[in-house]
Amino acid sequence: MNLLAFRKMHGLGNDFVVLDGRADAIAVAPAAVRAIANRRTGVGCDQLVVIEPAVVPAADAFMRIYNADGGEVGACGNATRCVARLLMEERGCDSVAIATAAGILACRRDTGGRVSVDMGPLRYAWEEIPLAHAVDTLHLPIADGPLVDGVAVSVGNPHAVFFVADAEAVPLADCGPRVEINPLFPQRTNVEAVQVLDRATVRMRVWERGSGITQACGTGACAAAAAAHRLGLVDAQVRVILDGGELLIELLTDGHVLMTGPATLAFSGVLDPTLLANGSRR
Ligand SMILES: N[C@@H](CCC[C@H](N)C(=O)O)C(=O)O
Q: Which residue segment(s) compose the domain that 215 sits in?
């Protein structure tokens, strides 16, 4: 029986099971992702990530990302820092390029064990989010409790950012799942409740598409900073305070967004083969 090694990593408590599929290809069916992600009967994680061989010479590896519900997605900021840390340690270098479904991301070692990732270009056009039809992406026609007048941003994945007076008071477990499946978002959406504290600081809570409330969301933090900046509420450097800690987000003049934060290796283990057997091939 082939046992599959995994690493458990996290970025500010947004946690991942990381599999290495570079030497031997790993195909993980949605049911297997759900089994592995299950916190009661599996390993437990918000996302499952498979490192694969680079698809283009400009990248060091490809990163495939699955939400806990088994759906494959284009981007995950916190996981990108974690995979970058692994690759940089493996190669003994200070920078790597990681290919994702959303593009090639340049990553570099920062001070204090942190990792910086250029998450690529932010997109604001309705068809790029994507939305179901043309609307002003600065003023979404959605209202759910305190979540009103949101901003749509794509960071390689869709985000609906709502500015609120008190982020702690938002009943995110109620509103989040409803906004996630609002028909305006044909591919569903991540949902952020954001309170602007000053021109350089916001507090953000997140309901992630396909994973629910998480401790932190890297792409969500980028989306929150970008939306706040578009509305003139913050400057180009924003500290985003999440349940699990802080990310530094910098909106670059070329339209890209730079995210800096920690990448933590929690432990290594071996997957119970019955988890992977849930409809997967290897
Ligand atoms: N936690 C991630 C985002 C993971 C994907 C997201 N739930 C989606 O469906 O797009 C991050 O740190 O960015």
A: 123-254
